[in-house]
Amino acid sequence: MTDKDPLIQPDRGQPAVAIHLVDKDGLEQFLKDRLVPQRAALEAQKFKAEGFAHAIMPDGDGWSVAAGVAETARLSSWCLAKLALALPAGTYRLASGVPGPALLGWVTGQYKFERYVSEPSSEGPRVLLTSEPKAIPAALAQAEATALVRDLVNTPAEDMGPAQLEEQAELLAKRFGAQLRVTRGDALEQEYPMIHAVGRAAARSHAPRLIELEWGNPEHPRVAIVGKGVCFDSGGLDIKPPSGMLLMKKDMGGAAHALALAQLIMGENLPVRLHLLVPAVENAIAGNAFRPGDVLRSRAGISVEIGNTDAEGRLILGDALTRAGEDEPKLVIDFATLTGAARVAVGPDLPALFTRRDETARALLEAGEAVDDPCWRLPLFDGYREFLKSDIADINNAGSSGFAGASTAALFLDRFVPKGLDWAHFDTFAWRPAAKPGRPKGGDALGLRAAWRMLQERYGLG
User: Fold this and answer.
1) 30-42 tens-digit pLDDT
2) Is 314 labeled as catalytic in the residue annotation?
3) Residue from 240, 297, 330, 385 carrying the catalytic annotation
4) Which of 198, 221, 207, 407 lies closest to 320, judged by CA?
5) What is the pTM of this model?
6) Coiled coil located at which positions (predicted)?
């Protein structure tokens, strides 16, 4: 991504172009306060103070910017993000007030994924100054975490397999002094049979594994973060069509979210005992691939009939959630690109949220609204458990009805989370099909900052 450090800086009176924020209610007065050449420039550019619109005005020997926002009294994370791309490279400051949450969008709006580009962009940075220097570290930390999700998801599967997810976890462990444990091979088959079964058909270089990281004071509340790490999903023997495989490099988006959230937790020294778990596999096709109709044993001892090999993410999460629950955490959060049904229900921008406890759902929903990272709660409806019945095993991994696919997938996971644990499940898309200000097309973090805000509020850094 673009080097983020210079993009927002403390305002020490350095030369900068002024940005005047205007909403529709204040436009008339704003125009009255302008000089005649400025009003003429705004009229020529048909500036109406609409959100994300901007216009250039003469200003003495230089120039300034008029920028439309929805409300000058309440800035959003994204209200300046389009400016961060539209304006020339240089240094800017608001003519009045402080950017607040808009610092984030200013940075994320300048993100570029150029790993495979022969001639990367040579554009210089757009720097935004703020008179609130204490706000800069938090904005940069969240921008860095967002960029981590984007980088991991945007990287093709050949270069982002289970080994590369392990490398990323190892980098975090070294950076923050955490303990890393990786289970693979015969030990994986014995201890986490569903993770092994899903990943066993992959090439040796993409062999399956369970990645675990632990960090923090053991006396602090234990929080488990789990991320689905299917680095590529062919569908297995229930093979996807070509169109369905095209974006399957992003099927490890849950793992990317979990790693990024762990980075935020450790970087901000949140007073928790963190347990990060990433089951990392490639759902490939070979002679030893698991089959429709097979019955798998799980770490929890629950037998699972395979109704569809393309419903593999819930299998690996089942073993990982079982492991997370063994240490009796106070809270478990998992992220997964789990179902197309969630996208049909709530579209690409809203992660589907499932929780056991109403208070946890409220906390996550309110946190998401507060930081412009909304999610939408869907039901863990007990009446749909019958859709997962099997004639020969304890449960089937694929719903039989064709209805409520996101809920039945969440109910499958619920079987592997010990009873009584506070648990939240994000069924996230991890992808932007079209660019929005501050949010380029491609891999993206959806639900990450909502979860982070909730953890801050619950554990003392809110």
Assistant:
1) 999 999 999 999 9
2) yes
3) 240
4) 198
5) 0.97
6) none
